[in-house]
Amino acid sequence: MSNSTLEAVPVLQPAGTARDSRPRHSLWTRFVMRFGGAVVRGLVLIIGAFWLLPTVGLAVASLRTSADNSASGWWTVLTAPAQLTLDNYAQVLQNERIIGSLWNTVLITVPSTLLVVLIGALGAYALAWLDFPGRDAMFVVVVALIVVPVQVAIVPAARIFRALGIYGEIPAVVAFHVAFGLPFAIFLLRNFFLNIPRDLLEAARLDGAGELMIFARVVLPIGWPAIASLAIFQFLWVWNDLLVALVFATSENAPITYALREQMRSFSSNLDTIGPGAFLSMLVPLVVFFAFQRYFVRGVLAGSVK
Amino acid sequence: MTITPDPAQDLRPTSDERVIGRASVAGGPGDRHRTVRPAPRRSRDARLIAALFLGPALLMLLVLVCYPIVYTVWLSFRSGDGTRFVGWDNYATMLTSSNTRRAILNNLIWVVVAPTVVTVVGLIFAVLTERLRRASALKAILFMPMAISFLAAGVTFRLVYDEDPNRGVVNAAAVTVHDVFVDPSRYHGMDVRDNREVVSVADGFETRGPVASGQVIQLPLVGLPPNRIPADAVAASPPPAGPGLQGVVWLDFTRGGSGQPGVIDSAEVGLPQMTVEALAAGGEVVATTHTDVAGRFAFPELTGGPYVVRLPADNFAEPFNGITWLGPSLITPAVIGAYIWIWAGFAMVLVSAGLAALPREALEAARMDGASEWQTFRHVTVPLVRPVLIVVMVTLTINVLKIFDLVYVLAPEASQSHATVVALEMYRVSFGGGLDYGLGSALAVLLFALVLPAMLFNIRRLKGDR
């Protein structure tokens, strides 16, 4: 395959002008074929640097004192690296509000993820392999619910939680996340479970295994790639959420996104808290991203329909 | 590090011939198994078991999704506190109130611009990275923004877009580029002392009264910080005697305060490269010159008089200080820019999967026929990956309709009413102080109605798979 770039656009040779059987290329195309690889590589490097720039900027700014940040741009570290300091991080790690809200994020995210995977897998198995009336219609409804925006449910859900006496508490936030995570979870897992060879299930049934046993011993082990992708997607979805927390959590149950959003009111003067705080909140997603990249990409891509 | 070209492929235990767009909303791939039914003797038990398996999920969905949808529709026809039935009033308010209209208009801009741009950028990235053997590091960089929250992205871009060129990298670049083409003025911010020979006028500074040749015109200025004193400036000195108008412009300030106002003290420097104009009695400029390193200037050809000598305002023009990206007028494009940063990697990975699945023969055939790279791309590659592009566009459109966090975080309080979108306005109206659940519910219903086509699209694809 020859090398080329989109830069070949301006000089086009009409096709069919060739007299011999070999394709004729313009001077530009031949230039591109020879040097295109280097051009593409250079271009790609520039794009990569460009895409990294915002994150690097925040990272560097979070490592500078607020005095430095108001006096000069973060890029001055290139000439004066001595200004980098961990002071802001030391401060933020002492900050009870930030640390407390990070812990709240964990308290919200872990149960939300586990419950969605468990409840979703049970439901998905029923929709895939159990026979009961209305099964297919029920699946259509589940698929329909995937794209429902949370806005359409938050006001009534807040009233339900208030009636139950859990409004503002972490269980309310978890319950809402679980409910809105389920349609996609069931959709993803049901499609995966459907592809489990029928013979395996039938063999287990003939051996006298109950449905719960089949679910635990056959379906879950075979389905784990899909479950992993789902779990990672759901974990990040909840970890990164702001809106649900804003509506259903009181300030003392606020996750990190909520706590940092409060600080945004005066961005410039709070940059020494917001910068490190945002980086701490990004740490877990980034670790998940680099550690489980395959499942991560699959989960995010599959879940993008939400 | 690997980002699999087809992310959905490994989600299926059995191989499947349909690869393109798998990650999206397609229905069950394996419906060929569905003809199997459990043995009849189990059917009564099976219903009970199914109810047990599905029970928790159905309960959650009914209580926290289905019932609230109906409730919200009901609320949208009631007053803000829910006590009275008001018919279509909330919907009428939604279409007439300036805030909600702006929200709807902004959502329209988002839907038209963002998915298209993201898809095109993703396509370009996919084509570029396809030509590199080891592009996985780059793909990881481009995809990474998908991992972080909209809040973190919002924080990141607040800094990127910061108005102060000393903080925001975009404005730093803008100012640098601007200063390449337009020389920044050296003396912005300078002023005159009160009751001296120089007065401030609309066009700069000029001599208090008319001057004539033979006189040494003294133009003392103040207000130049030490770090902006030109490097080539030397001690100010009055010009030597000669014909015509002559004078000196200098920084009439001695550090430590020992200097005397209006007098050229020994430590005071001249202001070089200052434009000086001489005006005739009628006010027209008759001559222009520049000061030398000691601040001296001369108009030897101007004899007689009277003239007025002026230092035009160009000398003191305020420098370009960057663009207010997060102000009312540019806020929506700025937020869309951040959105592109987040989602371009997503589009790239999906399009890459599509490209990897292209039949090589078609491309080779086009090349053998003498098509150029661009023609091959335009007439073979793009039509073949069209299904993927459509899936990406639909996915992004759904996503963009519901955009909330990014706008809420990135737009400063002052420009939020200019940046607002339907999802944000719903939150603002219902919870952000207004507590108008009627109007909020009407906005939520609008949002729901907007995603309905996507819902039908999903269901149709599911049925199509059967």
List how many beta strands of chain B DSSP finds. 8
Count of strand segments of chain A: 0
In the CATH hierarchy, what is the architecture of the largest domain in chain A at level 2?
Orthogonal Bundle
Strand content of chain B: 5-15%
Give me the CATH fold name of the largest domain in chain A.
MetI-like fold
What is the straight-line distance between the termini of chain B? 36 Å
What is the share of helical residues of chain A?
over 70%
**What value does the Rg of chain A take, in angstroms?**
26 Å
C-alpha geometry of chain B: elongated
Secondary-structure element string of chain B: HHHHHHEEEEEEEEHHHHHHH
Mean pLDDT of chain A: 83
What structural class is derived from the secondary structure elements of chain B? Answer: alpha+beta
**How many separate domains of chain B?**
2
CATH topology of the largest domain in chain B: MetI-like fold
Extract low-pLDDT stretches of chain B. 1-41
- Biggest interface between chains: A-B, 138 and 132 residues
Concise structural overview:
By secondary structure, chain A is mainly alpha-helical.
How does this structure look, described?
The complex is a heterodimer of chains A (306) and B (466). Chain A has 306 residues and is mainly α. Chain A has 13 helices and no strands. Chain A is globular, with a radius of gyration of 26 Å. The two termini of chain A are 38 Å apart. With 466 residues, chain B is an alpha+beta fold. Chain B folds into two domains: 78-165 and 325-464, MetI-like (MetI-like fold), CATH 1.10.3720.10; 198-316, Immunoglobulin-like, CATH 2.60.40. Helix content of chain B is 47%, strand content 9%. Chain B has 13 helices and eight strands. Chain B has a five-stranded antiparallel beta sheet with strand order 1-2-8-5-6, with no helix packed on it. In chain B, a hairpin with a 2-residue loop joins strand 1 and strand 2. In chain B, helix 8 (360-368) packs antiparallel against helix 9. The longest helix of chain B has 33 residues, at 43-75. Chains A and B meet through helix 1, helix 2, helix 4, helix 5 and helix 6 of A and helix 1, helix 3, helix 4, helix 5 and helix 7 of B.
